[in-house]
Model the fold of this input.
Amino acid sequence: DVRALAGDVPLVEPGDVLVLGDADGPRRQLAGAAEASIAIPDARVFDASAIRAAGVEMVADRMAALIERENMPFWLHLDIDVVDGSVMPAVSFPVSGGLDWGELDVLLRPIGRDHRLAGVSLAGLNVDRDPGREYTAQVAEVLTSLLA
Done:
């Protein structure tokens, strides 16, 4: 059984999940798909509009404090389509109302500095929509800045 390879399930407790920057709610509503807060009810969810309402710096500070309080290794999964489609069209599902590059940088900065960061995964980059590779280069710059 392939599930045995994963070890004990769940690998991550739903209450340990922090979802930041989602702006895909309107498309999910049209498709009849669940919001993140419904799909993972114990997760802490701050969509892009909530981040802006609270202030990007304040959310980044709260996230850093949460990581400090938990004091355990963590994993960053960056779904790059969290960035607004007007500045990041090289994704399979561009969104409007997403984060801009500066907001993403502010949110990621405390994560990259933290010694407990165990790894990073990237999803959503669609190089077929980036023939000049300018957006791919921007993603590489974000990751380089994060891990520098």
